[in-house]
Structures are given as C-alpha cells and as structure tokens.
Design goal:
Elements: E1 10-15, H1 17-27, H2 34-43, E2 47-54, E3 57-66, H3 73-76, E4 80-88, H4 97-115, E5 120-128, H5 132-137, E6 141-149, E7 153-163
Helix pairs in contact: 1-2
Length: 170
Amino acid sequence: MTLPDTSADTSIQLVGLDETFELRRAVLRPWMTPAEAAAPYIAADDHFHVGALQGGKVVSTAGFMAEAQPDYTEVFGPAQWRLRGMASDPSVQGKGLGGRVLEFGVEELARRLAARGEDGAVVWCNGRTVAQTFYERHGFQAIGALFETPRTGTHYVFWRKVEVGPSGGI
C-alpha cells in the first residue's frame, strides 16, 4: 500500500469498527475473519475506534473498549478501558501517526469520562514487546511478567492513567 504520508494529507478522527478491519488484519492478525475481529468489541459495554486517514484509507488505528484487566484490578481501580487492535500500515510506521492516533483516542476517552461525570480511568493493553518503546514514550508503563500469546509473540500489560481536567479534557 503506497499512500501519502504528509500531515496535510492526514486526518485523525473517530471511525467505524468495520473501517479498521483490513489494516488490523494485514498488520496484526491475518488469520482472523471480520466476525472474529469484531467479537471482543461487540461484547464490550462501550467502545470506539480512531483512525488516521490518508486518501480515504485508514492507515493507522486504535480501538478503545470498556474492559477490566482481571489481574490488576487492585492497581488500576474500577474504571478501566482497554486499548486494542492498534496498528499502522508499514508505509507510515515511524512517522508519528500511531502516536497521534493514540493521543486522539486518549483525549476522546477523557471527553467521554467527563461527559459521564467521571474523573479518570486507566487505559491498559496487552502490548507486544517490539512496541514497548512506543508505549513508554506515550506515558504507559509495563506491569507484571512477560507473557507469550500464540501467533502474536511476547507481550507485557502496559497501562496509563487518564485524568479528566476541569475543562473536561486530559
């Protein structure tokens, strides 16, 4: 996939789950069907998806869903959201789009929390170790032991607090 990579040609916005599937399948899990990929989100009480679009195509994406991490509830508290299915097309990796998508999603989460009268939450993910530097650069920290997920490699649980400021943002 060859797409323009300039910021002027890119918009970051909320997108539908179905708009993210092809990219996530190509980058993360090529064996999954659309129904298998959608199932965790559909089962969640609440979810949203962010995409970086270039030429009308999603080139970077992240999904956010209300889901508790069962092993760290005492550390994370009751308000938890999971970052899931974060992917960037190889042609745009290393150009900052993934970070922009992630931060847009965190800001959207803060807006949603504020609208509900909540003061914050934890965002967590099962992040691949190859992306550890990325997560740490965006305020996440690893917790617990390294673990392996079949077909997707070694991971840590990464987490970050999202606090709602007085104006409703982070």
